[in-house]
Amino acid sequence: MEFSMGQSYQRLNEASQSMLELVSEYIGTNTFCVTQTTDEQHSILTHVFNRNTVLFDAGDTLFLEDAY
Predict the structure, then answer these.
(1) Which domain of life is it from (predicted)?
(2) Strand partners, 47
């Protein structure tokens, strides 16, 4: 999926994947992720991009304070 300015997304899944691909082209860090807060203490990683070293996988859960 290719990103284009003004593109409308019907689902978070489509937007997240496109956003991670775009950001990874411009910022050279290893890991980017999209998270969803599940309660007052936890966040689940819904989409993950790991460039070289796998630090997290989609589905991993973190304490909310560690997700930022």
Answers:
(1) Bacteria
(2) 34
